[in-house]
């Protein structure tokens, strides 16, 4: 514990890669150490220890934001731990909104009917038909009038983009690398934006399709496969680029779905939606609130 933090984190990564025997109990003890908890949680994903799900749920509320997402990713990776995650969401121990849409999809891909039933109970909008999407696009195209967009606040829209979109998408040269760079897209075309946001899987480029990677140790990883050769597969998830040896992979199942979740706009008010689209359609970068000079 007296060693530099990054050295300790590096040591954990080395032990996990080496699959050191009896490592899970050590990693579980490190959940109480804020400096290395996130690294310990990611390491625990490699081990099917029956105590891990219970401990991750127990410590969830004490973890920092990034470590909480790591905990959800680890819990969603296996059927047994996914059951514990869904039970914690149902009981209110973990907020439903803390579970990203891509992890909801990943748990659905586990193929367990009891898990799917619980997912549909907790996320009733999981099945979203094409007719509903078309109706939503038509409704929003009327609501997002030129007058409303002109009166909107693109700086607030940038904050909304940073919160919901920037982890995957790059705009004006900043952040995300998973999804397409939006800077040169048809951002001036409202209908183009609505179609791609409301129904992201409809016109999906091949290199942005989600794959579900099933590992021999029982884990499931969802992401975009960026590199695949005889030795390793590299998978870009919304949180990290993972390198997995081919010998650890049981199967790779390609999906017709986008990594981008649906119903992103459903959680926004009309005013927030206008702000977001005003930013997306801006010809240049907008200042963040903290970057604006005082009036």
Task: Summarize this structure briefly.
The protein has 295 residues and is α+β, with helices and mostly antiparallel strands. Helices cover 44% and strands 14% of the residues. Helix 1 runs parallel beside helix 3 and helix 4 runs parallel beside helix 6.
How does this model look, in words?
- It is built from 13 helices and seven strands.
- It has 295 residues and is α+β, with helices and mostly antiparallel strands.
- The strands form two sheets. It has a five-stranded antiparallel β-sheet with strand order 6-5-4-3-7. The protein has a two-stranded antiparallel sheet with strand order 1-2.
Structural class from helices and strands? alpha+beta
Order of helices and strands: HHHHHHHHHHHEEHEEEEEH
Low-confidence stretches: 291-295
- The level of helicity is 40-55%
Strand content: 5-15%
Largest sheet: 5 strands, antiparallel
Q: What's the total helix number?
A: 13
């Amino acid at each position: 514990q007296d060693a530099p933090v990054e050295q300790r984190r590096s040591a954990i990564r080395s032990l996990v890669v080496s699959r050191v025997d009896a490592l899970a109990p050590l990693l579980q003890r490190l959940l109480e150490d804020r400096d290395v908890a996130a690294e310990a949680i990611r390491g625990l994903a490699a081990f099917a220890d029956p105590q891990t799900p219970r401990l991750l749920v127990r410590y969830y509320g004490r973890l920092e934001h990034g470590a909480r997402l790591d905990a959800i990713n680890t819990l969603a990776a296996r059927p047994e731990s996914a059951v514990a995650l869904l039970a914690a969401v149902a009981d209110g121990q973990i907020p439903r909104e803390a579970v990203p849409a891509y992890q909801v999809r990943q748990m659905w891909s586990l193929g367990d009917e009891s898990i799917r039933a619980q997912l549909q109970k907790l996320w009733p909008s999981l099945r979203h038909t094409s007719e509903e999407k078309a109706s939503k696009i038509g409704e929003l195209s009327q609501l997002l009038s030129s007058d409303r967009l002109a009166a909107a606040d693109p700086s607030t829209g940038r904050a909304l983009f940073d919160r919901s979109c920037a982890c995957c998408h790059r705009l004006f040269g900043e952040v995300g690398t998973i999804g397409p760079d939006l800077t040169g897209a048809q951002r001036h075309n409202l209908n183009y934006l609505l179609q791609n946001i409301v129904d992201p899987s409809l016109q999906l480029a091949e290199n942005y399709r989600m794959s579900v990677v099933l590992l021999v140790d029982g884990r499931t990883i969802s992401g975009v496969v960026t590199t695949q050769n005889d030795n390793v597969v590299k998978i870009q998830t919304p949180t990290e680029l993972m390198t997995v040896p081919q010998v650890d992979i049981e199967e790779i199942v390609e999906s017709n779905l986008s990594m981008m979740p649906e119903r992103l706009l459903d959680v926004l008010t009309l005013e927030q939606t206008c702000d977001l689209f005003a930013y997306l359609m801006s010809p240049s970068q907008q200042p963040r609130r903290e970057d604006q000079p005082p009036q």
